[in-house]
Amino acid sequence: ARIVFYHYYEQLCIGSRSNPDFLSRRSRGRDTASVATDKILEDMYSSKKDRVNSRTWKRRQDSLQ
Superkingdom of this entry's organism (predicted)? Predict the structure, then answer.
């Protein structure tokens, strides 16, 4: 599972160069790794950051590291 997860993460980082959604997030001062991590969390939990308590979001983000 870790290998698949890492491969998906790498694909997101590489694909972020041409994805307009990623580019808009990066233009707000965020790096590629944090944008990819947020995208993975959104996919895993089927929720947007806006709908999740900020403390819960931070816990989920920390669990990936």
Answer: Eukaryota
> What is the crossing angle of helices 54-63 and 32-45, to 10°?
110
CB 8 within 8 A of CB 1: no
Helices H / strands E in the chain, number of each: 4, 0
Each of the 65 residues of the chain gets a pLDDT tens digit; together they read: 788 889 999 998 888 878 887 777 777 777 888 888 888 888 877 655 556 677 777 787 787 76
Domain ranges of the chain: 2-63
Torsional class of 31: left (φ above 0), alpha (ψ -120 to 50), beta (otherwise): beta
- What is the C-alpha to C-alpha distance for residues 14 and 16, in angstroms, rounded to an integer? 5
